[in-house]
Amino acid sequence: MRKFIRGVDGFNHRLGRIMMYGIFVLMGILLISSINKTFFTPTLWTLEMAQFTMVAYYILGGPYSIQLGSNVRMDLLYGEWSPRKKAVVDLFTVLFLIFYLCVLLYGAIGSTAYSLGYFGTEPISFFGGLITGSEEIGYLETSPSGWRPWLWPIKTIMILGIFLMLLQCISELLKDVLRLKGEAI
Predict the structure, then answer these.
(1) Does the global pTM surpass 0.85?
(2) How many domains does the chain have?
(3) Number of DSSP helices (H) and strands (E) in the chain, helices first
């Protein structure tokens, strides 16, 4: 358990520290957009690229936020509880979050398969088929904007981010179990 916690926490910590600088990438894109709109011809790609950057920043930074405990909590009661009672409540509530993330991950996998041209009902087997060579990528979904970028890269980032959040939630669950057993983490 401790090895899993250390591995997940370490990876998400490093990725979160890197993703903190994503806000500067977003600011750069918006600065380019402002300069082009003011002095030159407005560009088509800046608004959508800013949206994609914000999605990556938010979703890949999510596991780090969960790890730091900076997610939104109702501290009205929680702040006064003992560490053991907090662990019991966290253990119970993280199960709902894990269920939600599993449903979200399944939906993200289906949406990504669709963006790669798969229109069937088994998206997970589609990705297995891509690995073994029994499936092929079909017509790639693009954004309906004037720029028309492919959508599979950002959807793949969403799968990765949701999966990492799921791993971080499992790590938090295991930490709560260790706290309830009275062991140091």
Answers:
(1) yes
(2) 1
(3) 7, 0
